[in-house]
Model the fold of this input.
Amino acid sequence: MDRRDVLRWLSIGAATGGSGSFSQESPLAFAWAQEKPVATKGLPLLKIADIKTILTAPNGIRLVVVKVVTNEPGLYGLGCATFTQRAYAVETAVEQYLKPFLIGRNPDEIEDIWQSSYVSSYWRNGPVLFNAMSGIDMALWDIKGKRANMPVYQLLGGKCRFAADLYFHASGRDFQEVEENARKAMEGGYRHVRVQAAVPGLASYGARGATGAPGAGGAPDADVAGPANPRSIWESAPYVRMLPKLFEYLRVKLGDEVELLHDVHERVTLNQAVNLCKELEKYRLFFLEDPLPPEENDHFRILRQQTSIPLAMGELFNTQHEYVPLIANRLIDFIRIHISQVGGLSMARKVAALCEFFGVKTAWHGPGDVSPVGHAAGLALELASYNFGIHEGYVFPPETREVFQGCPEVRNGYMYATEAPGFGIDVDEKLAAKFPFPPGRTFDHSWGTTRRRDGTVIRP
Done:
């Protein structure tokens, strides 16, 4: 069909009230289908032959990885779908819904597969569906890289930098322990350190072993901080008083060369956040993370006007309705979204591109409950994104490295990508099966509940 045939068909459609529309039987559809294979001319036509989930916990943390198998022998891809607190829900979404929806599709059509999967449930934008979609999406990028015999970062535009700068987690039961752990990080070559200290008598997020007051309801037992404990006690006022003292102590002990970060984890009010930021400005933070919960995004307009501290936000975001306004209005400095939580690499690269236009840097959420595949996907995007800010550091334990062969290397505070095709990671499925999800109440498949002394639940 040439250009004149196309124009003639369109004119017929207009004259007949749309009967010449773009249907499966129309000459236009036929012509499009005939032209479609040209982009991959010389390569065999691929189809998705199977999709499976791999559930494993080599370090006690529930990880969900999706494996997409093609009809080409030996060609498959891996993607991260880890939603630790709802891992079995993600498994069901992949196996019962997306798998039958996508079997037989061409894995080259990454964007179309993402968009059609997105609307396939009608109701959308939830963390379970997005993590399931992420596992498939990353796996398709892995396949495309393997097929092109290139690392995924090459498909995204090539390297802007040789490696990704990391930040290290330095926590402690008191200021001295935080200092010791920060010094260890600095000796290991890290230039950025996130510091968290326990508040005496209270549970603390991101700090070790603080003991709490009696649990909600007057239970006599002491609470120990940690996500496995559903009755951890927290009050924001003592925390707000303690934190500036921690930074004053660390600046005196560590000096000015190291970059210091902190995660509030949304546990303060707007007024407390404003006062806290004002008191912390003199200590020159690299960023302050999640000072407010996502439900209070509009408050960032007020907070932004009150402080010069760089603000990082987004760990709990799912949908563009949450992060686009903060980016477009320049209300944050770093975007902290969890890549699998927003639908995978395809969506994350759009977010990174958007951020560049508004001066926002990337700092993807990447603790231990992101699989090595997820870290590798984030790293590929970071290497190819001009506006990369920082990568959350995580050293993969030996058991994890045995299950996931080809984990990114960490040296001198940098994470380096492998030069192997795709993400460069494979999974030993037999070994992964030897690390099933832990039984009992570890995480209890849920994030631990933290409460005020009067029993009120605290977010998160």
Observations:
- The longest helix spans residues 127-148.
